[in-house]
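This is your field. Have a critical look at the following sequence-structure pair:

***
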Amino acid sequence: MTTDAADDRTATSKSQLAYEWLRDRIVSHRFTPGYRLVLSQLAAELGVSTVPVREAIRRLEAEGLVTYEKNVGAQVALVDEGEYVTTMQTLAVVEGAATGFSAPLLTVEDLAKARAINQRMRDTLEHFDPRRFTELNEEFHAVLFLRCPNEHMTDLVRRGWSRLRMLRDSTFGFVPGRAVRSVEEHDHLIHLIENGADSIEIELAARHHRTATLDAFLTSQHAQRRP
């Protein structure tokens, strides 16, 4: 390996490290919406130059987790209720489509894995942990769209998930009762796929599954605002 190649590899490694470090702090809300991302401070904390930090911030900006404003600089993106709604609506469409495309290509082993994850979700219901339930929920859906041949679509799904993590630790923390129904709907999705349902039927079922969570959240919020 040449010196130049080794240097490129090191630079890529540092950029990835900075990206993962920043992303974790944004998603976990240690860096809250509006938090200013000062290159020199972040680079000093990571023990790297500002170059990999700048590259990491650009990646996060592309994902919608960071914004850049003139005379202000980079900061963690501000969020509001309307943005949560539109993110969920968008995710319902792209995740539903990705699941529909993936369904005919899923293997017996894939479906067995999805069923096992859903059972773990069911097991958490007795002593409910919204954050853990949400993590398992992502694992479940990642299996269902695993075989989607459209990489652009799956990238959009993952970006939507990233955005949701920043907006809410877990929607199920606001509507824990929705978790029981969600697990049941997972069973239905697996059943449709196993029985060779049309891709469009699977897509619509996956889309409805996502919008049902949004509807439950909005109903809960509306009830809390009542005088």
Q: What stands out?
A: Strands lie at 66-69, 73-76. The first strand starts at residue 66 and ends at 69. DSSP finds nine helices and two strands in the chain.
